[in-house]
Write a structure and sequence with these properties.
six-stranded antiparallel sheet, single chain, Immunoglobulin-like, 3 helices
Length: 588
């Protein structure tokens, strides 16, 4: 029986740096490689490299799981630019290889063999990436003759590969994702065979996907099989400390300990006796969760200090009783207990409701302790104000004088004949901003028609361009004047669709023709084979006088008769472009 479990994770092509107990193989060898007392996936370094959120699905230290230890043979049929030097060995580690159509991989087990559970539990696990088009088979073999005889006797399909028996075939995937665990129950074919009778030490996976390799070597397709890891059931009794038949277990605190150890399930008990609880004793000695609003609150004083000595005195101040200001801070400036008087900003002790409060030190501007005084012009100003004693002088500095600044910025009396005359604009307006534009017109610079009356159709001031018969704005001396509107017939080009290479006919070369070659500025011709490989590139050339046409060869070798793809790019003298793509049949 074969079951499929969808995995909500991603394969990547990342790599794990090699060190003790942190590679897929080291995390499946049932050895404590770094000497920390934790075996394989009981070690957090191994958990970090697995790709499922629930690591117990694929990274297990307890009895029941073994993973491939070495690659016997593999054949990847598609050439892609991805480093696939790491085979699907050990636990799932985010590194997968793709097989490709008819590709295969033989995997071997040498430290713990896969066996059968003897019931309806799964025996083999394939961690892989698939699409609806993917089809692959799983076959098993063994160096144990008894296992081979059992598999042959129950009638499993035997492959051409000697002593390999097909136990599963995956196809018609219902697409709910891309990444799966395929589970196989060997016992469904074994008619009640007892647990541990089989000894499987070889697994063959063959990709039967009926798809092509990707067009480009740099592209990746999920239409054929990706294999990350292959695991299976083992009855080796290995505990988390890598001891055969050992009594160590992972406790609820995540430690690998014997159940008789006094620290078993104890190192993560909080002050309330809850496993992995969050409660701790606060500064008040109360056992609470850190998020509890009463945490550190039951013993704080008025100053917010846990177990502090601050209290409210009779003046309402939060002070320690030993503070010299305790019960002293409520006499007002007149010595009255809890009196209302305070020193105002003028330094006078008054009740704030007193009309004289903050009034005894106002200056002429009403500013407390201000420096403003009345100047000789009767204005209230600071003595350092630049207008102090200046507001009653005219622009010539004459006290009570009649001179003023005219519209031209000149300091003159209004009766002066030069008043407002020094700044007339071209329209005779005093202080006006009109000026002669580049067209010789007197206008305001913000006038929409400023510099507009003498522009040509290209918006060039005093330019000579005009609209030609094609509706294009050009100077009459431009070669394209009245020539940029080529007709369809003037742009027509002729591209062959058949070439007869072994004849003396005119179509033994791939030649582009035009009735009006003088209208064509340049041409580029590319020829591709059916696989998209570029086999001819003309480069950019002029149609007139060009002789290096494609002759049905590639790199000097004659090509087979068949259909080839062309791409022709034509640029006309008016910079219009034409791109044509099609096929040409090569006949020999």
């Amino acid at each position: 029986m074969l079951r499929i479990l969808l995995i909500s994770a991603l394969f990547t092509n990342s790599y794990v740096a090699f060190s003790q107990e942190n590679t897929a193989i080291l995390c499946s060898d049932l050895l404590d490689n770094d000497g920390d007392g934790l075996c394989d996936c009981a070690d957090p370094e191994c958990i970090d490299i697995t790709y499922l959120t629930n690591f117990n699905d694929n990274c297990n230290f307890f009895p029941g799981f073994t993973y491939a230890d070495f690659t016997i043979d593999k054949n990847q049929t598609c050439d892609i630019n991805i480093d696939q030097t790491q085979d699907p060995l050990g636990i799932p580690d985010q590194i997968a290889i793709q097989l490709g159509p008819s590709g295969h991989v033989y995997l071997g087990y040498d430290n713990n063999m896969i066996t059968n559970t003897g019931d309806d539990r799964d025996d083999i696990y394939i961690f892989c990436g698939l699409k609806p088009e993917t089809r692959y088979s799983i076959s098993v073999s063994s160096a144990d003759a008894n296992t081979i005889n059992i598999l042959r006797d129950v009638g499993l399909a035997e492959l051409e590969a000697v002593d390999y028996f097909q136990v599963g075939f995956v196809e018609n995937i219902i697409q709910t994702g891309q990444f799966y665990i395929h589970n196989i129950d060997l016992d469904s074919n074994l008619n009640g065979l007892a647990e541990g009778i089989l000894s499987i030490d070889r697994i063959l996976i063959v990709d039967h996907s009926n798809v092509d390799c990707p067009f480009s070597p740099s592209s990746i397709t999920w239409q054929y099989t990706f294999i990350d890891a292959v695991g299976g059931y083992s009855n080796a009794e290995i505990d988390c400390n890598c001891q055969a038949n050992g009594s160590h277990q992972i406790d609820q605190c995540g430690l690998c300990l014997e159940t008789a150890d006094p620290d078993f399930d104890q190192t993560c008990i909080d002050c309330n006796g809850i496993l992995n609880g969050n409660a701790i004793e606060d500064e008040c000695g109360v056992c609470l969760d850190l998020m509890d609003p009463d945490f550190d609150q039951s013993c704080i004083d008025c100053n917010g200090t846990p177990n502090g000595n601050f209290i409210q005195d009779n003046c309402g101040n939060c002070l320690e009783p030993s503070d010299p200001n305790f019960n002293q801070g409520c006499d007002d400036c007149n010595g009255m207990a809890n009196g209302p008087s305070v020193l105002d900003e003028c330094g006078v002790c008054l009740d704030p409701s007193d009309p004289e409060f903050n009034q005894s030190c106002l200056d002429c501007a009403g500013v407390i302790n201000g420096e403003a005084v009345m100047d000789e012009c009767g204005n209230c100003l600071n003595p350092d104000d630049q207008n102090f004693n200046q507001s009653c002088a005219d622009c010539n500095g004459t006290l009570n004088g009649f001179a003023v600044l005219d519209d031209c910025g000149e300091c003159l009396e209004a009766s002066d004949p030069n008043f407002n005359q020094s700044c007339m604009d071209c329209n005779g307006t005093a202080g006006g901003s009109a000026m002669l534009d580049e067209c010789g017109d007197c206008k305001q610079p913000d006038d929409p028609t400023f510099n507009e009356s003498c522009k040509d159709c290209n918006e060039v001031i005093n330019g000579t361009s005009i609209i030609d018969e094609c509706g294009v704005c050009l100077e009459e001396s431009d070669p394209l004047f009245n020539a940029s509107c080529l007709t369809i017939s003037e742009k027509e080009v002729f591209i062959p669709n058949v070439m007869s290479i072994d004849t003396d006919e005119d179509n033994h070369l791939f030649i582009i023709n035009s009735a009006n070659p003088e209208n064509i500025q340049s041409v580029i011709v590319n020829i591709f084979d059916r696989q998209g490989q570029l086999i001819y590139d003309s480069g950019n050339f002029s149609l007139v006088g060009f002789n290096d046409w494609w002759d049905g060869t590639a790199t000097g070798e004659e090509l087979y008769a068949g259909t080839y793809v062309y791409r022709v790019e034509v640029t006309y003298i008016n910079d219009e472009e034409l791109v044509e793509m099609g096929t040409v049949t090569l006949v020999r």
